[in-house]
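Milestone M4 deliverable, item 7.
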Amino acid sequence: MAADSFTSVSSRNVFQRLGDSIKGVLFGILLFVIAFPVLWTNEGRAVKRARTLTEGAGAVVSVAADAVDPNHEGALVHVTGVATTTNTVTDPEFGIAVTALRLVRDVEMYQWIENVSTEKKTKVGGTEETVTTYDYAKEWASGLTSSSSFEHPEGHQNPSAMPFSGSSWSAGTVTLGAFTLPPSMVGRIGGSEAVPVTDATVAALPPAIRENAHVSGPGIYLGTAPSTPEVGDLQVRFSKVPPTDVSLIARQSGNSFSPYQMAQGSIDELRTGTFTAAQMFEMAQRENTILTWVLRGVGFLLMAFGLGMVFAPLGVAGDVLPFLGNLLRLGTGLVAGVLAFAFSLVTIAVAWIVYRPLLGLILLAVAVGALVMIKSMSSKQAPVPAVPSAAPPPPPA
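Output delivered:
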């Protein structure tokens, strides 16, 4: 066994497992209940967002960036141009300074990482044996891993804090032609590129940092030697967002922009690159559709996992004979999935009846059909043999 790999074996009898699974029923019910508002609110959000974007597409006005037209004050405008700045953005700790829209510092620390793997085996009688393996390896990670939570912290201690963390700084003034972009929009501009690091960069660092600093690849290495990293060493890289083309749709507010409020939502779109208003609304609608399906999937999975936990005691009870427990889990898993699908459809359908009546009624019919099918499958029984009726008496002579 490797020095940084540890294995433990534990077992639970069928009664302990039944107790745990029964406790899990309550949590399963909670997941099942939470799924309903997740699905319902998602449908309302999706419809409102789609209507807002459709309404905005019919009201937007494309204007030039080179002059602020007071006639469009308060209007929903579409503007394209180069977002630029003359400001110098500085990292206050490292002293790195660039003329850019945004300066970003990424930090990774060399530290111990715990990887846990488990293997379970059910024996006749329902006892479950669990073999848990804890592997420890040194890796570069951007966030601090607390070694106090390790199963075997001895010999795998990480620093209690990172001396430097990732951060970003934006230029104070970013212009788009005659307009000034608000900070919320500047933060959304993409297209970053690496800030080169040289020996001169290291030489200009503050003395407390420069003492253990080295040029390593595209960044600065803080430690004894980049070739032999030790726990606690850091890799620091810098990137910047240079002046770049942007397109936006928002409310014209003086010489700047703000969210455009509509009846069912607001519009405040910015994208890196040059796009027409129609292209931007099309992309926003597509993103709305993707988010809607993702949240539908989340709602369905909450229901399926919740119902699976509710049915879990059946599988545990069947583990007295392991093959029987596996069959019960397969069956209850299938039932949980079908029920979750049907309940999800019903919830979405009812929400659609409120927001989109015609489609909602169609979907509700499909959902009810699924529930009827489940009921018929569960109540299906073998046919009872018919009892032959007595032969009729012969006619009188």
